[in-house]
Design goal:
The structure is a single chain. By secondary structure, the chain is mainly α. The chain folds into two domains: about 120 residues, no CATH class; about 90 residues, no CATH class. It is about 50% helix and about 5% strand. Helix 1 packs across helix 2 and helix 1 crosses helix 10.
Length: about 250
């Protein structure tokens, strides 16, 4: 059972885990059709039933909700209510959960989840065959912890008028700020003259699913050099396709 105090954290965790699951689901290739028996005088043509994207999105949303709930409720209580304020004011939290979260720490946390979670993901072909459940969930858990341990943006980068994800347009889920020019490469950006110092804190407000997707399609350097505005990101076909698909995923009211 998820308490009201944990509700916001759960929404963030659900978005963190939805990104790779949605990406995996949308990247599946169609199964090859069986060849008709050449010995039959009149071959029976296979009936192709077109997939209903909206129904598929609804089914995936239900599955993500289930998986996210099962894993989230297995996390330690202090992670289910984690916030930037509690993290920076607690030496114990910052010691136990270093940022970025290392694999050993993730493994210890994820030992508590139901083994059936991995089976469920495998059944629906959503768990990569070359990864264990812990290897799959490690970056998801890391993204969740990073969300609540990252300091808020500078006042100059706040955009109070933004009420929806700037890529998928969803307005009913929490938004995160994406540094259009990642902080990790600020020194390189200035040295090479790609941008001026006043542009370094430009941000885009994205849902966690779109935010995670953006960081998987390009390195920090590529984002800073080639995709430093929302418009440039939207020029990529894979970004448009992902944003269109995830924009139709709606979570049921709790």
């Amino acid at each position: 059972m998820i308490s009201d105090e944990e509700s916001t954290n759960f929404q963030v965790f659900r978005d963190c885990i939805s990104a790779p699951l949605i990406e995996k689901s949308t990247s599946k290739t169609a199964k090859p059709k069986r060849k008709a028996n050449s010995r039959r005088k009149t071959a029976i043509k296979p009936v192709s039933q077109p997939a209903d994207d909206i129904n598929d999105a609804a089914e995936l949303a239900d599955f993500v909700e289930y998986i996210a709930t099962e894993i989230f409720t297995s996390l330690p209580p202090e992670l289910r209510t984690l916030s930037y304020s509690t993290y920076i004011n607690s030496r114990d939290l910052s010691t136990r959960y270093p940022v970025p979260l290392d694999f050993e720490t993730s493994s210890a946390i994820l030992n508590a989840i139901d083994p059936g979670i991995g089976d469920s993901l495998s059944t629906y072909d959503l768990l990569p065959s070359n990864k264990t459940i812990t290897e799959f969930l490690h970056p998801i858990l890391s993204a969740y912890v990073a969300h609540f341990t990252t300091p808020p943006p500078e006042p100059s980068s706040l955009r109070q008028s933004v009420t929806e994800c700037e890529l998928c347009g969803r307005s009913w889920i929490p938004l995160t700020y994406h540094h259009l020019i990642p902080k990790f490469v600020h020194a390189k950006v200035l040295k090479r003259g790609w941008h001026t110092e006043d542009q370094l804190n430009n941000v885009a407000w994205l849902c966690r699913a779109c935010h995670s997707f953006v960081h998987r399609i390009a390195s920090h350097e590529e984002l800073a050099r080639d995709y430093y505005t929302v418009e440039l990101l939207e020029e990529r076909e894979d970004v448009r396709a992902f944003a269109d698909w995830v924009g139709r995923v709606r979570w049921k009211a709790r």
